[in-house]
Amino acid sequence: MNESLVRAPLQLGKQSRVAFRDAALLALERLGEVPGGRLIIDLSETQRVDSAGLGTLVMLQLRASELRHTVVLRGVSEEIRFLLLMVKLEERFVIEPRK
Length: 99
Fold this sequence. Notes:
This protein is an alpha/beta fold and 99 residues long. The chain has one domain: STAS domain (Transcription Regulator spoIIAA, 2-Layer Sandwich). Helices cover 40% and strands 22% of the residues. It has helices at residues 17-31, 51-66, 78-86, and strands spanning 3-7, 11-12, 38-42, 48-49, 70-74, 94-96. The chain has a four-stranded parallel beta sheet. Helix 3 links the parallel strand 5 and strand 6. Helix 1 runs parallel beside helix 2 (51-66). It is globular. 27% of the residues are buried.
């Protein structure tokens, strides 16, 4: 299975979203055009995600979906998982435990 990994910053938000987005788009590009790839976003060190960070995750998921790839959120803290649940975004992503 074709996978590409990007690590999210400690705080995924307004200040860090552009650099994170650019790194994630490069990781998505590495998956190529063959459907079925997995963009893995490692959130195991991420402590906080604000609305700008959530918007970035959704944008990445939409872009991946256009290419028929899956976005995997790995190592999601309970706090971030609860946030995804509250804003009804948890079903957009595959959520995996930390490896």
